[in-house]
Amino acid sequence: MELTIFLFLLGGLFLGWSLGANDAANVFGTAVGTRMVSFKTAAIVCSIFVILGSVISGAGTTETIGKLGAINALPGAFACCVAAGISVYLMTKFGLPVSTTQAIVGSIVGWNLFTGSETNLKVLTTILATWILCPILAGLIAIGIFLVVKNIISNSKIHILRLDAYTRIALLLAGAFGAYSLGANNIANVMGVFVNISPFTDINITSFFVFSSVQQLFLLGGLAIAFGVFTYSKKVMFTVGADLLKLSPLSAFVVVLSHSIVLFLFASQGISSFLNSLNLPSLPLVPVSSSQAIVGGVIGIGLLKGGKEVKWSVAGKISIGWVVLPIITMIIAMLILYLLKYMFNLSVVL
Amino acid sequence: MFSDTKKLEKDIDEFVNILSEVGLAFKSIVKRYLSHSTDENFESLIEKVTEMESRADIITKEIEHALYEETLIPDARSDVLRLLEHLDELIGMYQGNCYHFSIQKPNFPKEFHDDLISLTDTVVDCVEALCLTVRSFFRDTRSVRDNAHKVTYREKESDIKFSSIARRIFNSDLNLDQKMHLRYFVEKIDRICDQAEDIADELIIYSIKRSV
Q1: A160-189, pLDDT tens digit by residue?
Q2: Does B34 touch chain A (CB under 8 A)?
Q3: Residues of B with CB below 8 A from A157's CB?
Q4: What share of chain B is helix, strand, coil (3-state, %, to 5)?
Q5: CB-based contact, B138 to chain A, within 8 Å
Q6: E strands of chain A, at which residues?
Q7: Least CB-CB distance to B73: which of A146, A158, A160?
Q8: Do A153 and B212 count as a contact with CB atoms less than 8 A apart?
């Protein structure tokens, strides 16, 4: 691989690191923050499953990102990733749980505007609609799971210590599922813009199994996410969730599970094909925000408990962040593209 | 993970069993004292209570270490440890009462025997209700309030019995020093109920915190 190609890929890896540091904290943050799962265990499980999710099921949402803007030059892809990474970093500095999904969509639209490429409005509208649908769906699923869990626990009379042990296992399993879903759903944010210009070639491992160039790209992205988990997510994990609503370990499990289900639903080609085969409406395969799913789940549980404990001012601040982030990212992306094109004489579009 | 959990569950159950058994032993001790004063059987019962109290202390320490070392029930750990500490104090109060009978040998005239036995029965019933409340806190938080109500009921009953017996003591022809001495014993027994009620109130709060 040429050095320049690797340098441009660094933009995506930076975004992957950022996703690992911030979004992965959504998956295990409450479990680690409440000390139900140790950071080491969480980081190992999270890394393994995020890589598996990326490589095995990452293709579905990547197709949608590709339709939004077909970035066809490495400097362009680099600019989009760096812009997304910077804006996520800035919003995180302000304590707003934003997502790489919103950032990358903003930067792709920025690329489209800068290069004069057409933005697929249908795809954009679908993505924006899922940003509203995602937290609502997560909230509703969280309410459903919470009621079932509450009913089971109330009737089964499990000892507090045994319940604690079960909750730890449940948090680990939900976290593993969440990490897999995060990888499957969000790898498109990290590596989606590089798919059309992948520097890798397919590797035939056996006559039946081919490790495609896209999967190699996703493996690289998955490793970057895992690196982010190990190097920076600990601090974020200990702060996640505490602002919006204080969660018990069991509520944390419900939130993580609902988040994971939502991310999986928006990433699973299998479920989508199955629903289509039954002529039922299916959810679009779109990279959704894990932060939005978590916030939706937390608010769902908060509302079920009467809504008094939810800090609505924090919820409002988070919502504003969701609107502001794509716009800021779009502007930053256009600025970087301008610099690359006019100061470094790089071609940002073919 | 589950073997540690099972051991801790067993330890907590054993601790509550000790609390209940110390109460029953205390009941026997009072009856024995009133009928035979401080004979050999009486002292062996006191010895039994001391052994049970020591065992409760060991269990408390084991549970404390396990909860912290294994970082178990992080959201309820401090509540559970405080609860065990207060229950241990309750066992200590029983033991203290036993020692006072053994050392001070209060002279309860026959006319007060039935009242004292009745008060002791109520106090032990109160702590039995507390044991049920504690067990429900660990397994079935919905029953905590119902069982705690029984503790409160018994505590009120104990207060009434204490007032009645104290009034009768001070209305009697006994010397003031004996009156004061007997009142001291009756009051100390009644205090066990006060402590039990405080713990039951705490358990209601803990169970609200624990509700899913």
Answers
A1: 999 989 999 999 999 999 999 889 888 888
A2: no
A3: 139-140
A4: 90, 0, 10
A5: yes
A6: 203-204, 210-211
A7: A160
A8: yes
Q: Which fold has domain B2-210?
A: Methane Monooxygenase Hydroxylase; Chain G, domain 1 (1.20.58)
Cβ within 8 Å, pair B73-A164: yes
Closest to B200 (Cα-Cα) out of B134, B139, B143: B134
Q: What is the largest CA-CA distance in chain B?
A: 65
Distances (CA, A) of A107 to A253, A329, B87: 33, 5, 62
Q: DSSP letter string over B127-182?
A: HHHHHHHHHHHHH-GGGHHHHHHHHHHHHHHHHHHHHHHHHHHHHSSS-HHHHHHH
Which residues from A are below 8 Å from B80, CB to CB?
160
- Comparing A30-34, A126-130, A339-343, B173-177, which segment has the lowest mean pLDDT? A30-34
User: In DSSP terms, which residues pair with A211 in a beta bridge?
Assistant: A203
Choose the closest CB to A159 out of B1, B9, B210.
B9
- The CA distance from B183 to B166, in Å, is 6
Q: Which residues in chain A are contacts of B74 at CB distance < 8 A?
A: 34-36, 249
Q: Where are the domains of chain B?
A: 2-210
Q: Do A161 and B137 touch (CB under 8 A)?
A: no
**pLDDT tens for each residue of A51-86:** 999 999 888 788 778 788 778 888 888 899 899 988
Q: Which of A145, A159, A160 to mutate to test the interface with B (most CBs of B within 10 A)?
A: A160
Rounded-to-integer distance, Cα A240 and Cα A254, Å: 15
Query: How many Å apart are CA A345 and CA A339, to the nearest integer?
Result: 8
pLDDT tens track for B65-76? 988 887 788 888
Q: Give the CB-side neighbour count of residue A182, counting CA atoms within 13 A.
A: 40
**Cβ contacts of A277 within 8 Å, gap of 6 or more:** none
* Residue from the list A161, A169, A248 with its beta carbon closest to the beta carbon of B72: A161
- Chain B interface, best mutation among A164, A166, A173, A255, by max B CB count within 10 A: A164
